[in-house]
Design goal:
410 residues; binds 2-phosphoglycolic acid; alpha/beta; 8-stranded mixed barrel; 3-stranded antiparallel beta sheet; single chain; binds zinc ion; 41% helix
Length: 410
């Protein structure tokens, strides 16, 4: 039974304000904080109401808190429904999805703690003891870096040959270090600066960055014997001007057909393992076309297009848009809605990829969600305190599992 709830304003990794929730039960305690995006999808729930965090903390203390006291912390759906009812809108714009998601997750963590279970076991565990592969962030561009960085938002890698999570996260940081060295050789004026998610933010064109990414994967694969493959998140809604994709750094534009050609070319040339948001968020047809063309050799993942929303995902499933999707609990605002989307995805053979946001805290919850949901991939950076909080938690989870194995990648 929830005995007390506290809300506080804390910092996120960009230095912006976010909220943290503490929930106390008779014999349990749960704490969760909400992250924030920079390249958010248009149909995400509203993270914070316009009136600001100070005012929402007052509303919480005066109106929300007493509705939740006395509910069992393990009644996730009841807690989430209560929050949605108090909010009263269909996009959580009055309470803010960041407030509701932090409450929803903190309650689950309090319940887990009162049963003396880690969160992933409380949420049903993972019958096969599978650990997700980490999609490590290597180079940042687009909305996550400065104007001379590549237009492509994220250059990622997956250590597909790793035997365990420790090998996997250390393989990723070796690639990160190697890329840092290669950038300095290419750009002697490089300051070694990084973007929002801990990847390097270099003065490089898209193709220069692709070359360096690919070379680093190859060199570290050879050095370690662990196969590592390149991946991307283009976040191209940020590049779309209404009729074409504008690549400012490269000085070129691409219409939808040219964008698809460009994607096909880089998927083949660089043997891309995974491409997230290849096209703008409302181009369901384009996603379906690309998936038909390359979906057997490359994971095509939808982030801004589906925004962790089961109804929007259902539209994509109908026409075969993408074969994977990003799961970000604060895009939809509650744990139960997040789970519903994961379930729909898995029932339709879409790969769920549990993900951080560009603005993060040291909250480690998504490591548990990825394991409990049986997600074969988790995207949570490679370096930086708020990123390694999740990666190190996966190492601990692996340690306490009876016979841990890496997840199966398609
Ligand atoms: P965001 O971006 O957290 O800034 O929305 C991350 C992503 O696009 O995956
Ligand atoms: Zn994305």
């Amino acid at each position: 039974v929830i005995e007390n709830i506290d809300i506080r304003k804390i910092l996120d990794s960009r230095g912006n304000a976010t909220v943290e929730i503490d929930i106390t039960t008779e014999n349990g305690f749960g704490r969760a904080a909400a992250p924030s995006g920079a390249s958010t999808g248009a149909l995400e729930v509203v993270a914070f109401p316009e009136k600001g965090i100070g005012s929402i903390i007052n509303t919480f203390n005066e109106q929300v808190k007493r509705e939740l006291l006395g509910i069992n912390a393990d009644e996730t759906t009841l807690i989430d429904d209560t929050l949605k009812e108090i909010d009263g809108t269909d996009n959580l714009s009055s309470l803010g999805g960041n407030i509701t998601v932090a409450i929803s997750l903190a309650a689950a963590k309090a319940a887990a703690s009162s049963y003396n279970l880690p969160l992933y076991l409380f949420l049903g565990g993972n019958l096969k003891n599978e650990i997700p592969y980490p999609l490590g962030n290597m180079i940042n561009g687009g909305a996550h870096a400065g104007k001379n960085a590549p237009d492509i938002q994220e250059f990622l890698v997956v250590p597909v040959g790793a035997q365990n999570i420790t090998e996997a996260v250390f393989a990723n940081v070796q690639v990160h270090k190697k890329i840092g060295e290669l950038i300095k050789v290419k750009d002697t004026l490089s300051t070694g600066g990084k973007g929002d998610e801990g990847g390097w933010a270099p003065n490089l064109s898209n193709y220069e960055a692709l070359e360096i990414q690919s070379r680093a994967c190859e060199e570290i694969s050879n050095e370690t014997g662990i196969k590592i493959r390149p991946s991307l998140d283009l976040a191209p809604s940020e590049l779309w001007d209404g009729s074409k994709y504008v690549y400012t750094r490269e000085g070129v534009t691409r219409d939808t057909g040219e964008q698809i050609e460009f994607l096909k070319e880089i998927i083949d040339t660089y043997q891309m393992f995974y491409i997230e948001d290849p096209l703008r968020e409302d181009d369901f047809e384009g996603f379906a076309e690309l998936t038909r063309m390359v979906g057997d050799k490359c994971i095509i993942c939808g982030d801004d297009i589906f925004v962790t929303n089961s109804q929007i995902l259902a539209r994509g499933i109908e026409i075969g848009a993408a074969n994977a999707l990003i799961i970000k609990p604060n895009q939809i605002g509650t744990l139960s809605d997040t789970y519903q989307t994961v379930k729909l995805a898995k029932d339709n053979s879409y790969t769920p990829v549990v993900s951080h946001r560009s603005g993060e805290t040291t909250d480690e919850t998504i490591a548990h969600l990825a394991v409990a949901f049986g997600a074969p991939l988790i995207k949570t950076g490679a370096v930086g305190g708020e990123r390694i909080a999740k990666l190190n938690e996966l190492i601990r989870i692996q340690e306490e599992m009876p016979d841990p194995v890496m997840a199966t990648l398609k």
